[in-house]
Design a protein that fits this description.
Two copies of one chain form a homodimer. Chain A is mainly alpha-helical. Helices cover 62% and strands 7% of the residues of chain A. Chain B binds a DNA duplex through helix 2 and helix 3.
Chain lengths: 181, 181
DNA sequence: AGAACATATGTCAAAATATACATATACAAA
DNA sequence: TTTGTATATGTATATTTTGACATATGTTCT
């Protein structure tokens, strides 16, 4: 069972989805903490079906191409629940931004400043995105959702994203100021 | 030219290294922002040699196995400098911690709390590691290294690591408190 | 004397991921 | 009418990364 399997099961636990639906979620909101392309998703759904962790029902559509709707099975639920709190392996970090920063003393300062100004703008835009989503969730639930609700999990990750972008932005500003000095 | 190539060139820019040296650096300090195993490094050094971006000299040793010392070439330097400020592609995020958090509402609260208490301890330990390294660098340079110095780049990444772990720890504490409520 | 460990360099197979190829329907815009 | 876009599902190929296998030297500890 790959990590992608659990990513998919986690989504199916929130309701029925097609491979296409999942691909869109991995491209958009979900992409803040996991990412996958449809070329990975379709074969993975097949594997999960063979393992009996999801079941599929084909739905005929007239206005659109037919689709395959996937649901999690009790076996799938069981596997998901076991995985959530199992020991977390320390994931190898690969940040190209910091790989570049590691050699930043080699380049002209003005160009480096422009580079990080650009990164800062991206980071701020992302932070605003998180803040808007958080505000929407808070409005819908009149505050923080209770911890039994799936919206709580979503809230926790959105909050992380917002705080994280804030931290990255602050660091970028420090770096830009240091390069100016 | 893969990202690993640039990771290696960045290290060789700081001085001669063997494949073994690089593997250790990727396992230890460098691993905070890039990671690679020796099984990836040795073939990559071969490719870089074929491209003329590094040169190798074999060193006979009496007290240890012979070794191959790699140096960056002018062509390698040129490729590295071009890469540092080139447009940064947005890297797909894959955080297993947040993938799990996405389903945290499904598990018993007390077990979830224990899980995040454990993560918090790891994060704090990492933060202390960064703080100690930062303190050592500051002591060695009597403050922040100047931005032309390679120690500046190292300092910037250590500072990021420290601030990042602080943010992650704060979020973990918030999450634990929310699960208690 | 034997075991464990750090040094040192490689290869091979499998898994994970990305990029491109491939096809089909329906709707809206130009 | 043709072009583009969203829906919908796949396969094929290449690259990246991991984990296991493989070997050899010298030192230190028991």
């Amino acid at each position: 069972m790959s990590k992608l399997s659990f990513a998919i099961l986690g989504q199916l636990m929130r309701g029925s989805r097609t491979g296409y639906d999942l691909a869109q979620e991995f491209r958009d909101g979900l992409s803040q903490f996991w990412h996958a392309k449809h070329s990975q998703i379709y074969p993975e759904l097949q594997k999960l079906k063979d393992l009996g962790q999801v079941k599929v029902s084909e739905v005929r559509q007239s206005s659109r191409p037919d689709k395959k709707v996937y649901n999690i099975t009790p076996a799938g639920e069981c596997a998901l629940l076991e995985w959530i709190l199992s020991p977390l392996p320390d994931a190898p970090v690969r940040s190209e931004l910091h790989l570049r920063t590691h050699s930043i003393h080699l380049v002209p300062k003005d160009q480096a400043i422009a580079f990080y100004e650009n990164e800062l703008a991206r980071t701020e835009a992302e932070r605003e995105g998180f803040e808007m989503q958080l505000a929407r969730l808070e409005a819908a639930f009149s505050g923080i959702p209770s911890s039994e609700n799936e919206a709580f999990s979503t809230y926790a990750n959105l909050k992380f994203g917002m705080e994280n972008r804030r931290q990255v932005a602050e660091w970028s500003r420090w770096l830009i100021a240091s390069l100016h000095a």
